[in-house]
Fold this sequence. Notes:
By secondary structure, the protein is an all-alpha fold. The protein has 30 helices and three strands. The relative contact order is 0.04.
Amino acid sequence: MSSKKKELLSTAMKRTSEWIFSQEIPSDITIHAGGASFSLHKFPLVSKCGFIRKLVSEPSDADTSVIEIPDVPGGAEAFELAAKFCYGINFEISTENIATLRCLAEYLQMTEDYAVGNLVGRTEAYLNEVALKSLAGAIKVLHLSENLLPIAEKVKLVSHCIDAIALMACKESQFCISSNEALTSSTVSQPKPVVDWWAEDLTVLRIDIFQRVLIAMIARGFKSYALGPILMLYAQKSLRGLDAFGKGRKKIEPQQEHEKRVVLETIVSLLPRERNAMSVSFLSMLLRSAIYLETTVACRLDLEKRMALQLGQAVLDDLLIPAYSFTGDTLFDVDTVQRIMMNYLDLEMDRRSLDYNAVDGCISPLPNDLERVGKLMENYLAEIASDRNLPVSKFIGIAELIPEQSRATEDGMYRAIDIYLKAHPALSEMERKKVCSLMDCQKLSREACAHAAQNDRLPVQTVVQVLYYEQQRLRDVMSGNLSSGGESPAIPSKINVYSTDIHPVPDELSSLKRENEDLKLELAKMKMRMKEIEKPSHISTLRSPGSNPMPSAGKPPLPRKSLIGSVSKKLGKLYPFIRTDGDALSKGRAKPAKDRRHSIS
């Protein structure tokens, strides 16, 4: 049939429909669609709707005056618009109903084969000329198409919307992309993610459709680095209401939990590989949610590696991941942080062996990154040390991962150890020695040494070692200042040339001398107290030949004599079997001699 004859026939059908309404001719067909009943006329419907024409014209014994269409796309409201179109009644086509009308027209076979300018052609024209010409309109139509699957896929409505969104998104972000390309090095070190105005609109999409949109954008040339802000917005909206920061795992509906799990795993798979594309706090939030929702192991390991890449930018709260368990175990997930630290050390080792800086930032840490990570892990160790359920093995496992070269002093490690010993008073002597062996007593500051010397929680051997190293350090400082004539090579850089105090070294030297004399006096008092409780016979057997109980006034004591003589107020713990009878005392003397020679590294 020629197009001219089709057009004449359509005009005749329209006039016939108008005449039917004007004459109020009784209906001859009833259609049940979407839970509603419509009393209509066969002629207007079969003239434009191929689906109804086939049902009416098929030879059968069934009554053709009643037709059932239960699964009509869009329901009763959409079918009413299609019926109005068949009768020639005007109605408005908009972005709100275009997706439904396009799918319904396809379902009812309202094509050009039955009438010129049928509903399929009209809806396609509106999509191409109006709805898909703007980014907001295309996103709106795509969102409405989610409820019309699979017929929306069949008519390629979803793919057309995705292509239109990807094309317009790349055009809108073209300036941002060129800036990112021109400033690649600066964006790696100083990330400045750009949040486009349309990014919020994409968050209404279903996760599988959202994923297809981002993949299409990348295929069109959109930089994966720029996907970071979009993914953050989508994650914040879709994972809202998830209590991933609580101390316990609360139960949620299984269906809701499954949906959020799929969303999270998809977001992690879309995260850009460039360093600093996502903040560490956002990665930490995703990791908490992944543990909470019990996602796949691959998903959690991926997030742990990403956090390891940027561990130098993390803060303490990023590592305090609650342990979501009902078994009454540790408060925090120590195993996860331990794996993150191990990944960081592996990356650091690779950087040192390969000795290059990747432009995309996948290996090279930032300057002074190791020191920041060491300080961060010391603070983390001190935070988890107060957990009474934290076993010694996990505490030692975390502490041993902190590189020694990242610790200028051992004050942070000593603080964590002191907190742990205070929270776990039931530790055995061997366990306390293992814990204290984690720190290097030679790197403790004077304040930390003063605190450790009076700390009842430390093993006696550790206290003796602290006092020995402190006395040795004071002696080395004094001898070094005297040999250099009162001048220190490190002092001039810190002296203010405009200061009136131009003799800081003698003042410091005199202060050190006073502290050393006070220390010697305290040690002498300790010896006198020991002499009062010991018997003369046993004292003579334990004292080495030719030993001098008091140090010479003119000569500093030798290291061996200083180590034996450097005791604190807890030295009595070395002799737990002191009694009034001599046998018990002699039995208790044999073992501490080994402890004195024991070196704590």
